[in-house]
Protein 1
Amino acid sequence: MRDDWCMAALIAANLVMVGSAGLCVGGAVRSRNPLAVSAALVMFVAMADHALLGVVSPVWWSLLLVAGGLMVGSTLRASALSFAESSTESSRSTTPTLGNGCAVVRGTTSSDLALTRAIGVSATLAYFAMAWLILGHQHPAGGGVTSTATHAGHGGGAHLVGMLLDGAALVLVVLLAVLMARAVRQKRTALASEAGGMAAMIAAMFLAMILPN
């Protein structure tokens, strides 16, 4: 009975990983930002392979997720400048975006912009958190559903560093959940979906990591 429960929880966690990644892809597509779309697609394929197939080594996915985080991070400053310029151009026909697919509507208050930027930065950090956590999974020979093991690099003197990184990822989950709740209160569905998707994805990765094989 316990084994059946663990297997069901593992399958659910894997599905949440893939579904959350798909939600983030949708947000990136709406942003029409090529870098954000590329990073989100890398994340989606990484989660699909990592959770369901196990064809590519987690090390490669980790490197690609770091690259995705750098791509998304590079859009933050440029997007913020775009928003600042658009605030003085009432005739502008396009809607500026910020971060990993975060849309900013014209007439947004400074408080709204702060929330948008906070979610954009947190979503960027989520890529690095996923890159770390994905190293905590090992695939069985021949692929298949993900099984879990200890983090590569958690042995010896790196154990403390690994614990700190795990703790930082958990703090990020809480932060994203708080930002999602704030976005819901402000009825900003797109931002809430992005923050919630990232939080659910990291939480699911933790769950899959601690479940027994």
Protein 2
Amino acid sequence: MAGAASQATAQDRDRKYVVGIRSALITGTMEVSGVDPAFDDLAADGLTGPHMSGFFFLVKVRPHVRIGVETLVSNSDQEAATTMNYQAAGPVVELSYGDSWFVSGGVHAGGLIVNAMARQGAAPSEGATAGSYFKGNGFFVAPTVDIGYRFRRSEVGLFAKRVNILGEKERGGISDFSSTFVGLRFAVGL
């Protein structure tokens, strides 16, 4: 009996390395019309609205502290009159409290490239389309909060992430790409 209990405890221990993914939908509005009046603002619209995803790798450095790297990719529906996407990556720090049920919060920061396009007229059935285009680069800071559940080597949770974008100001700046996302997180301990 004592052997079985110690084996079960060993299976549930907090893992040193965690690898996982995030997937989320935008809440609120991404006000890209502030970059240029040719662009429409992008609002929450379920699966056809702007969404984001990320891949992360974390290392436990203290009982409740993990550090690592994470990617951040966001894009909108390609059929919309105004489309956007950005790609980003950088370091992340996460604080976590709880065993089976947990709450965690963290900060993700780094560099990114953003772009947006507004199509003129209806989408063509094939080939390229004419329109207004913007591309810029800068930095982001993204606080995150998670609520989740750990079982065996896995973690599942619900998270909210506020992506604050800073960068070039020569052509109106890129802070209007800032937005908040809510979605699901899945991770595996190694």
Protein 3
Amino acid sequence: MNKKLEEKILNEIRHRVLKKDRELEAHKEEKEIRDANFEVLAEMTSLSRTEVDDIGKSVRDEFLTLQKLKQKRVFIIALLVVVFSFIAFMVVISNRPPEIIIIEEPFDENINDWDIYDDFEYKRYFLNSSYIFDTNVDGWCYWDDTRLDFPENYDVELTSTWKNGEYNGYGFSLLNDDAEYFAFALKANGSVSSSIKISGFFIIYAAWQLGKANSVEANYLNVQKLEVRAGNFIYTVNGTHVFEKTIDIPVHYFGLRSCGEQKVAFQHVKIINSDTKEIIFEDNFDSPNGNWRPREKVTKKSSFTDGNFIFSTDKNRCYWASAEGLEIDNESTITLKSRWLTGEKADYGLLLLLNKENYISCELQNDGAARLVVSEDEEYTYIGNYQKTGFESTGNNRLTQRVEIKENVVYYYLNDKFVQKCNLPFNLRYVGLRVCETQSVSFEHLTISKFKKE
């Protein structure tokens, strides 16, 4: 065995033996003192040593019993303190307000899957040295024109490319006004036609002729040309003769035209005086120099732009965008900040939905009028009277709608001013945004507060 380890063991044995000896000596000393005291008491009194020992035993038992009782009492008190502390803790826990969940929607990106729309009748815009006509209604034609002083003899040349859509007519017009005009058209299938509207009637000058123009399957860039001489014209496409006829109306405008559901790029137009070779009008749409009117007619359009959700609508109805991931329930507070941009006086604002047939519309108009409307199974069961709040929209100021839902009642506020309340006829699930008629609204921040479900 290791010598150092053996020394440690012997030292520990000596330490414990000496400690035990001290304890025995102390116990022996205590007994000797007690016996000496009992002996003196027996000599000082008439009691025998046995009687003194009995009394000593009795007193010792009493003291030990009292000590045990005291220890037991301390234990019981400590136990009661623990029990009452636990009860108090549970009472505090049970009375603590439930945890509140805060959901923020800043509208800086579409992480909550809002509905995105791009429904339109037509769009006209300049892009990549072209004037784009994007038309979206079957059976309708759309045009843009510029007024010119036409001489007796002139040439018109138009270059265009069909982009996509259906094979409908597109090209150019010579107009007296919107009620009287010539239309020189071609289609992406390679056919060409011409017609005139005069005295409210359309007259087909030349029926559709296939193979006169370049089609999509070939080179679909086409050049239309019209040579006008002393009231007569010759119409060609890509140098191919189509037909010739007499100009039956006075001409004051040149117009670009597209019909039906298709997208066309007009790339170059040139009109010259054929006698003097003077350019009357020319445009390659790099820097458009005509009195063109690019515009769009939107049915509904929504987009995330510059940290806001822009929702634009047209026509005599209401549209909405919803985000089913933004859940609410019958004990929620919803705050929506928005800015009316342009349009007519019509309803817009916050929707509280069970589904698309059952909802509550918290409506607002740009003059500050507000109300609640309830739809149940696609029937309006409550239409509140408009309340004047005094918070008129200017196109620059932000308004705040707040809805508090509690105890099956909906409370509606605008800029913290109470507007209206109504009973809640169904459970709520998620929120939406609603815009009606012809207007554009910027939705800028949405907050949902609700209790956490255990």
